[in-house]
Design a protein that fits this description.
Length: about 80
């Protein structure tokens, strides 16, 4: 898989922490599967992962908490 940023063919499967700032809270999702560039550190998520993240963000917005931290592997 080729990196969109540095064009190196060095994207590897990895796990990372997704951070989002919503209107009234912060959401941190740990252990999100992603592809990470060995060369420049760029992180790319697959479409299905992005879909799931959006679902998690929707849920998080309904929970009146300032900071919301969850584990991707437990979010199904
Ligand atoms: Zn790169």
């Amino acid at each position: 898989m080729r990196c969109l940023v540095c064009k190196a063919d060095s994207m590897i499967e990895s796990k990372c922490t997704y951070f989002a700032q919503l209107d009234n809270c912060y959401v941190i999702i740990e252990n999100v599967p992603c592809y990470k560039c060995n060369q420049c550190g760029e992180v790319v998520y697959t479409a299905s992962v992005i879909e799931k993240i959006e679902g998690i963000l929707d849920k998080a917005q309904n929970i009146a908490s300032k900071i919301f931290i969850m584990d991707y592997t437990n979010a199904a």
